[in-house]
Amino acid sequence: MNVYESLLELIGDRERVSINETVLEHHSKGIAYHAPHAPDVVVFPKTAEEVSRVMAFANEHRIPVTPFGAGTSLEGHVIPVAGGISLDLTLMNNIIDIRPDDFLAIVEPGVTRLQLNEALKRYGLFFPVDPGADATIGGMAATNASGTNCVKYGVMRDQVLGLEVVLADGSVMQTGSLAVKSSAGYDLTGLFVGSEGTLGVFTRLIVRLHGIPEATTAIKVCFPSLEAAAQAAFAVLKAGVGPGKIELVDEATIAAVNAYKKTDYPVKPTLFIELSGSPSSVEDGTKLVNELCEGEGAVSFVVETDSLARAKLWEARHHAAFAIQAAYPGKAMLSTDVCVPLSELPGAIADTRRLVNEQNMTAAIFGHVGDGNYHTVLAFDPNDADEMARIERVHAHIVRYALSRGGTCTGEHGIGIGKRAFLREEKGDAVLWMKRLKQLFDPNGILNPGKIFLP
Amino acid sequence: MNVYESLLELIGDRERVSINETVLEHHSKGIAYHAPHAPDVVVFPKTAEEVSRVMAFANEHRIPVTPFGAGTSLEGHVIPVAGGISLDLTLMNNIIDIRPDDFLAIVEPGVTRLQLNEALKRYGLFFPVDPGADATIGGMAATNASGTNCVKYGVMRDQVLGLEVVLADGSVMQTGSLAVKSSAGYDLTGLFVGSEGTLGVFTRLIVRLHGIPEATTAIKVCFPSLEAAAQAAFAVLKAGVGPGKIELVDEATIAAVNAYKKTDYPVKPTLFIELSGSPSSVEDGTKLVNELCEGEGAVSFVVETDSLARAKLWEARHHAAFAIQAAYPGKAMLSTDVCVPLSELPGAIADTRRLVNEQNMTAAIFGHVGDGNYHTVLAFDPNDADEMARIERVHAHIVRYALSRGGTCTGEHGIGIGKRAFLREEKGDAVLWMKRLKQLFDPNGILNPGKIFLP
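YS: structure for the whole thing
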């Protein structure tokens, strides 16, 4: 049997079944350090029915299937480590329905968050989850993504009310409903969100929308030390200001952004805070944030309300990830993703900084400190085995510190390839039950094999 | 084998293994219309270890186990329909840890929400889920309860960050972590929340806490018609006021409360709204709510900010369920629990009112209109088969109306016994997967048999 010919017959469109080298290469990797591996063939379905046909075929012939969206995964989720089919869902990018009065949209998995937000603007609504990259809604659901807005609006699992999922055998299941809450049986929607393409392929998602706040203010505060900035973030959260975003960027990252964007931001640990709501609540909140930051020794405090000025103020934060990559051309990137209980955040960040300094590593530290989640981005040469091993030891130390404080190895990036051993450390015997769930939904192990679980 | 003697040996405390008639009777029912059925024996464990021993024993001997908390279930969840062991968790009522800086508490399943809130008061924190009754946290997690506060704070599944669960075979599993978000593997916590005691027994829960808002205002608005009140609720939600609570009570319920509490509330469809946050945001919100309600023809508008006056203003809503019971002594109660997309709420309530009027039924309608969830409480004589059949036809009509609009048969009460057929109608083939999950975690079918699924 020739897999390519068979798939061509199933799909009936030479443009949407590809073994072109460039296409295979594009589907061989995410954007992080993991070793690429090309699929044998890439299929671009346009309907759930086509996804169903591909899955039934793959299941019958035991061919691995790895779903692919925008390709912005940080943990190797989209790498077809066992070859087989890369299922590229970017042509399934229709916004099926926007129900502004219900604060809901129904979308295909390949719709990106910027595409959705562009379509929502005229209704005064927006979709809040923002992982940085212009990821697809399907991919964001697959990793339970979150990002800067989640301290106010919740993570991807909180936004997805229902799914259409094609299962390993090609059958199609509907979960959830258009109601914003339900106690009807087991939460299959929540089980599939965050399953990283290992339990099924999303072909339709019902997502919650939110009203664009009446007033929004952006605040940028510089601190003398990373610890002071982390303490200030903690103070703001404790005071119940309810920020829309609260992000920390360390000195090394600001320096990298300055180099990358030719800017001259003060090279200081910086908090980026967004407040949103009614004009008076935003005004009250800004005053309170100012007092709290001064209490932690803030050295500068800038407030912008105009939308262009706000965007400019946030630039240093938004360019952080790209700036780090640009600062170390040719190097590979590993981003840690631990999340700790809020009170443990200042200590965790201090411990991480101490460690990377000790190791003379060029690390950037930034993240969503509003929910205890921060990233340490480490640049290294993937061909230098010693350096790689050293980086992995640092990663393990950071994860174990977080776990010893009751935290998690991944706040938002997922397990993928890179954190499979940590999952076992974190979850213990619960991983055995996760494996049984995998076995139940995908008995032949064709759905994104090699992810989440160590062989 | 004598089950009672064996359990006595396992627990080693005559006070905590009971076959006393009064105790068996207490464990034979919830608070709704479902036919009671007594367990053979009631066990009151004090530790997870004891729960584990009971489960291992029950699993070996294929004895049904039905978890029991405050007994306030509305769908017969706690009725041991197949006899066996009623596992009363009310002695496991320790608050293990309060971590105010992390906005977390770790509790045993028998802790009630009022008990927890009493302990939290001195930290300026509270646990927001309020289903009305003083239910246990374990029971509330088992049904994914919500109630009045959930429009602002989310449902039970949003509050539970982790669980200790004793599985059918007696093994103990830990899920989740102390981090407020995680993408580490499948969401077992969310799968167990809402599983109605059919997948495992909770012995410990990590729950989120929230800061008590600085300012709170209660608003009571009377309308000329139920439809006008529902439209006003919808207008308030659309305007982005972000109410803390928004509850609708219809005329029949107000009349029942007046009779029950000797009050003289105007017998009009009434909206109860709570706004909370910073003083200025609450003030802005109150003005906006006033304008919106006047736009829908409000006939009275009362605002209270003082905490005693607020409590008094909310009384009519809080007494609703009890007043209905008191108004029809000797009758059984069926409460519908559909949840529809927000825009469908006014139409759904109008349809329900039309139907019960047509049927000359004495029905009260009230509910959490902020998330599209409303209850129709119907009083009837459970010994009158004709009346029972008529009530069930009305229930089926209300559910099918909701399902035809993309809603759910249960917003917060769960499936239990009473909605098993509706679950199948609502979820289709997804129910087969729910059954397979049940089979995976409880192969001998000993955990709360007869619930969620029709035999």
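YS: worth flagging: Chain B has a mean pLDDT of 94.
IM: good catch. Also The domain at 327-411 of chain B is CATH 3.30.70.2740 (Alpha-Beta Plaits).
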